[in-house]
Write a structure and sequence with these properties.
heterodimer; A: about 250 residues; mainly alpha; Ferritin; B: about 160 residues; alpha/beta; GMP Synthetase, Chain A, domain 3; 2 domains; 3-stranded mixed sheet; 3 helices; about 20% helix; about 20% strand
Chain lengths: ~250, ~160
Amino acid sequence: MNIQEAKFQYLLRLGDSSLIIGHRLSEWCGHGPILEEDIALINIALDFVGNATSLLAYAGQTEGKGRDEDALAYLRDEREFRNLLITEQPNGDFASTMARQFLFDTYMFFLYEELKNSKDETVAAIAVKSHKEITYHLRHATEWMLRLGDGTTESHERLQSGLNDLWMFTSEMFDMDEVDAMLIKEGFAPDLNKVKTAWEKRVKEVIAEATLQIPTSTFKQKGSKEGKHTEYLGFLLAEMQYVHREYPGAKW
Amino acid sequence: MIQTYSKEQIFKLLSEIPDPEIPVINIIELGILQDVKFEDDLCKVIITPTYTGCPAMRVIEDDIRIKLKEIGIGNVKVELVFSPAWTTDWISDEAKEKLRAYGIAPPDHSSFDKQVLLGKSRELICPQCGSTKTEMISQFGSTACKALYRCLDCKEPFDYFKCL
């Protein structure tokens, strides 16, 4: 693998994660528990899709084969996607969605904090911008963690069960492979161990304050870095890509 | 032909373009328009997005093309730059006053609301009646850049332009 391929892979990992979690969140449109929350979820979804647009556009330029952000988003199949497994997990109930957002937003918050120092100017610029936005997302998710965790018996149980179900997808966020090793050396990407320490500390604090328990399961699911996904991604892509594939090049 | 226009003239022309979602302020007051450059017969307009997913950017891009076409500049490239990242500090005081008059509480001077992670909401002044007894309804409002508040005195809900 050369450095250009490594950069392309890395940008896909970032961009695909934003795209897929943005799409998942958009499924809440019209289904939020209250109007303000419905609007909040869709606002956040929009930020993620916007962020994915910048990252995938840059991925396409880096690859240099003439693929733009739309080609990358709509014309790749499941095994070519590099999004983290946690981002494709179904929404479940509201508590489960909030658990997913909290675990992922905390990760992105600390990751973008590191990526701001990337030697790649475009990545650093996108990171500065995205870090500002993710700060608001993280606050939103953290507030719900506290409110639901320290709420009624039912809200507490639902959130705990959401956390338990998603926990096995968190460890791959910090896995590093050849791509990471090459890009750390270049000063393009950060060492994920640093992000992991900050993530663990923050997640533990919020879970304790929300009177919840850190899940005890030690099973770790991974695969996204090689394009091995859970069964849910295929269905998501079928819905997301349908119009573009049915009417290629359509304009209105 | 094109070089007969100065950068200042183009800026003045583009200042007629309002923000599609907050029509009382224009794209210069909002800090979106960054620069205008001429490269042979190409007119390059550099803009920066407020939020990465802001749907108004497409509309603004179209508006810029239409405006320039009016004075005979057809070869236009609108470039989106992310660095330096847009901040609410770029909104002029005059524009902030326009926002207030329009019913949107303007952002503070501080470049970023540090309280944001602590979950504390700011004390805001109601743009309708001037009361300081207000509370946040939702951190996310009608557009990506706004939060939703309500006044406890005049009971009116209002938008707050978030610090970024």
